[in-house]
Design brief:
Guanylate Kinase phosphate binding domain; 18% strand; 209 residues; alpha/beta; Rossmann fold; five-stranded parallel sheet; four-stranded mixed sheet; 9 strands
Length: 209
């Protein structure tokens, strides 16, 4: 019997570096990065099915009515969501799926898919977080204050996650997440169907490459 893949949910406050870590993970292992759906119009250079799944509002609402999203939200008049079918299809094929998402979205995913692996990315310090946000060079004084205040609140959600990883150095943080994934693949409740035969109770199948 094939093991299912893992849904690896990575989130954290703005400036913690979750996007950078996800890019590093995708370079090192064969993960599939979940693609969100949205009702906003494509921007220059964006590709349907790669950047986002671009849907009309009626289609998005129809999928909501059919429980077609792991999570969704309306932001500034546009809908955004994580399609359930595409994620589940990959997981059923034994592929590991990475979902990079904000904290509120991650908590909604946890309600719908509690067997996921939920990893919270932390900055090494709030001072370093402030430096990273300022370093982007795209924040006004007001937006910087808003983001920093929001980050203080968001860090309190770390207790809702399975793991916390401090992103002091990207390579170290990425390695920790890789180790978490290895440990999760060895959990008995994930592999028990492959190591215990339903009839004999003693027959083992090979479940590692």
């Amino acid at each position: 019997m094939m093991n299912k893949g893992l849904l690896i949910v990575i989130s954290g406050p703005s400036g913690a570096g979750k996007g950078t870590i996800c890019k590093a993970l995708l370079k090192k292992q064969a993960f599939w990065l979940s693609v969100s759906a949205t009702t906003r119009k494509p921007r220059n250079g964006e590709v349907d099915g790669k950047s986002y799944f671009f849907l009309e509002v009626d289609e998005f609402k129809n999928r909501i009515s059919k429980d077609g999203f792991l999570e969704y939200a309306e932001v500034y008049g546009n809908y955004y969501g994580t399609p359930k079918a595409s994620v589940q299809e990959r997981i059923n094929r034994g592929e590991d799926v990475i979902l990079e998402i904000d904290i509120q979205g991650a908590l909604k995913v946890k309600e719908n898919y509690p067997e996921g692996v939920f990893i919270f990315i932390l900055p090494p310090s709030m001072e370093e977080l402030k430096k990273r946000i300022i370093g982007r060079g795209s924040e006004t004084k007001e937006s910087l204050l808003r983001r920093f205040t929001s980050a203080y609140k968001e860090i309190n959600y770390v207790s809702k996650y399975n793991y916390a990883v401090i992103n002091d150095e990207v390579d170290k943080a990425t390695k920790k997440i890789e180790n978490i994934i290895v440990a999760e693949r060895c959990r008995v409740d994930r592999i028990k169907d492959n190591i215990i035969d339903s009839k004999e109770g003693t027959v083992y199948e090979q479940f590692y490459d």
